[in-house]
């Protein structure tokens, strides 16, 4: 089993920045892909960014150039650095990790971008 604990969400003004963290514990040895998803109010849960265990990344078009996903293997933590935030970035951000045994989700952390 893998447990994912997210942190870093909050309220920020448009143009501001936040860094989200996803810390993994448990049977984490085989994790090969971790991604951040966002679910805005009334919308589907969509992929925001992902990173493999060897550092390959992918991003939704809406966040390219503004968000950066990274990994600290020593801390078993994946980060999402969010810059130049827009109101449409508002939503609950979820972390998902994939291992041979299956996929695991975090509890979600809320981000509100508003004046």
Give a summary of the structure in a few sentences.
By secondary structure, this protein is mainly β.
Distance between the termini: 40 Å
| Helix fraction bin | under 10%
Order of helices and strands: EEEEEEEEEEE
Query: How would you sum up the global shape?
Result: globular
| C-alpha Rg (nearest Å) | 13 Å
Give the averaged pLDDT, no decimals: 96
The parts where pLDDT drops under 50 for at least 5 residues are none
Structural class: mainly beta
User: What's the total helix number?
Assistant: 0
- Strand fraction band? over 45%
* Biggest beta sheet summary: 7 strands, mixed
Strand tally is: 11
Structure description:
Helices cover 0% and strands 57% of the residues. It has 115 residues and is mostly beta strands. The strands form two sheets. Strands 2, 4, 5, 6, 9, 10 and 11 form a seven-stranded mixed sheet that branches. Strands 1-3-8-7 form a four-stranded antiparallel sheet, with no helix packed on it.
Map the helices and strands:
Blueprint (H helix, E strand, L loop, with lengths): L1 E6 L2 E3 L5 E9 L6 E7 L5 E8 L4 E3 L7 E6 L4 E6 L8 E9 L2 E4 L3 E5 L2
What would the keywords be for this entry?
single chain, 115 residues, seven-stranded mixed sheet, four-stranded antiparallel sheet, 57% strand, globular
